[in-house]
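Sharing a chain and its predicted structure for anyone who wants a worked example. Both blocks are below, sequence first, tokens second.
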Amino acid sequence: MSDCAPNDKNLAQDSNEFMPENELPIEINEEDSKNSQITELSKTGYFLLKENRIEESKEAFNKILEIEENNNYALVGLGDLERKQNNFNEAIKYYKQCLTYHAGNNYALFGLADCYKALNQFHSAIEIWEQYLVHDDKNITVLTRVADAYRKIKDFKKSKQLYLRVLDMEENNTYALIGLGHLNYDFKEYREALYYWTRMLNLNPEQVDIRVLTSIGNCHRKLRTFDKGVPFFEKALEMDPKNFYALFGLADCYRGMNQQYRSIEYWNRILEIDPKNKVILTRAGDAYRSTGNYEKATEYYNKALNIEFDIYAVLGLALISKNQGRYEEAIASLTRLKQSDPRNYRFYLDLADCYLKLGDKNKAIETLQEFQKFGIKNQAINDVLESIK
């Protein structure tokens, strides 16, 4: 009867007397009607949420709760809605309420774990995801999330096991390859990290993510194979000429290759974008100093110090004084640095060298022995001390 057009209403009613009894329209069950309403409101709520029409979406989910208190669709929907707005603590309340009345609801578990992850509560996230895996232990998305969480809490073994389990299920899963790259890099296993990042690159060399290129470059930086890192950073710069990691990587590679004159270009390109970056100002100062351009180096070190005290900028200025033969001035600066960071062996080496330049061998020996009193084994200190004696 509901399929009849409005102007056919009378015709439909008149025709009922000619219908066999078993074909008469059945009255809709009240429970079916309620379920139908809930289904439609749930679809509407999620459609509106996808369209980012937050208030209208919330209204739809709340209407469900008026029909059925503690309805799982509505509670999960409201949780997802709050999570989308980064209101993670509010979202957690809805997911937990859902799980109180609908234990084991996968959508609530997934959302709850994602909230804990976003709040950096990785142990809680792992606990929830593992509950999820009890119901669905082949869910690759959840497995990679758990592996990510173990990586965040520095559990190398469990993280690696889960990433490798994903790769057993899906040989070239990008999330697992990326995760293994980060995991090994974080634990200073740079060759292993390089292996996984290279696999990522080989999957789609023509449309590779720029982060894969800079990650491969960074592995070469850490392995001190600087010349091999350069092409990857250069390719990244072709994709994004202002990419900080590519510019930094190239500058640092050229520094490592003792081509400081080339690193200067890239330090300065970073400073064009971020002129008050204290670390980069100091690095650029070091590069100018190594090329003998003391005037420019002094300018950059002072720019860094005008932003904030920087131990390496002060060291750079002290080394310029030393290189220019102003040993007393260098000694004064290095002595202050030694007092602020007494376990930095480099200060003692440069300080001892200044005393030697002034012909004060005993003071040089005394300076190096002062460092040895910390009980820190340092071959450079031992070698210089031995050569003086």
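Comments welcome. The chain is about 75% helix and 0% strand.
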